[in-house]
Design a protein that fits this description.
The chain is an alpha+beta fold. It folds into three domains: 103 residues, Dna Topoisomerase Vi A Subunit, Chain: A, domain 2 (3-Layer(aba) Sandwich); 101 residues, Zinc finger, CHC2-typedomain (DNA Primase, Chain A), CATH 3.90.580; 76 residues, DNA primase DNAg catalytic core, N-terminal domain, CATH 3.90.980.10. The chain is 24% helix and 25% strand. The strands form four sheets. A five-stranded mixed β-sheet has the order 1-2-17-15-16. The longest helix has 15 residues. The two termini are 18 Å apart. The relative contact order is 0.13.
Length: 339
Amino acid sequence: MRLTVESVSTVNREMGTRSVVKLRVEPFVRFTLNQGHTVNNRVWINFKELRARLKFEAVLRHYKVSINRKGNQHTGVCPLPNHEGSGTAPSFSANLERGIFQCFSCGAKGNVLEFAALMEGADVKDGDALRKVAVSLKERFFPNEPVSRKGPQAAAKSALPQAPAVITNPPLDFELKGLEANHPSLSDRGFTPETVSHFGLGFCSRGLLKGWLVIPLHDPEARLVGYAGAVVDDGGIAEENPRYRFPEKRERNGKVIEFRRDLLLYNAHRIEKPADAVIVTDDFPSVWWLHQHGFRNVVATMDDGCSGEQARLIVSLVAPGGRVWLLPQGGEAGGRFAP
């Protein structure tokens, strides 16, 4: 499925001026490569090393070239299939030790790998074609060597001490207790007790989130994976004191626990799939306000952008032919959020 822009409009409601973008969910055809042409699992080829190891004389014999050797030099009729010029004059010369060749008639020249590519009718300037020829030569002349699918950087990394395993957005094994659901930071903004209870909101008076409004965060399977903190007084927002605070990276039992909001959609676990329409916003209060006013299928990206994984999650919530409404904040942040 893919999202297609259907319309753009502007509304001015309790949440302020917002640009509303209406999207349509449509089928999307994914093109895949034919078997044998891989992208992420390619056989590693070191061209320089392969050229150094190949015996030019053996390669010439492989292509049925009769060797006329004098010292380290071979001369003869040009064997290249695209040769232009005399077909009988000995215009072709190859230095068998250095692994280079030149035809003084058609002008072709290069190294042993490029010679093989020309014999196969490949374009030496085409990296994929040249690589295919290199793989073929390696399999023919060094058939018993193990095939590596990693580059030298990966091999070097394997020799280094292994870093701790990183676990992203794992479920928490605890819940925050004693949150103040009736705190003025919520009631003074007009949020009802039902809305506060529905989203599990509350003011925290102890621990790491002391002094913050606490927001439980869940993954698509409804598992609690973290808590966000929201400032109580908007007047205190500054670069060193942002509006929202998210879980920081931490180590536990020899593993690194990492929270990534770009892999989640706030409130997505409460959406009954497939929905005919879903509203997507970028901040928490918009979700609460819309829910309180009867719009239940609302999610937030928790940022002024939308990641690829979040887009995939949005599409997964909506039925084919359904609608996605983008309702970002006004101003520069909203401009970055909307397409």
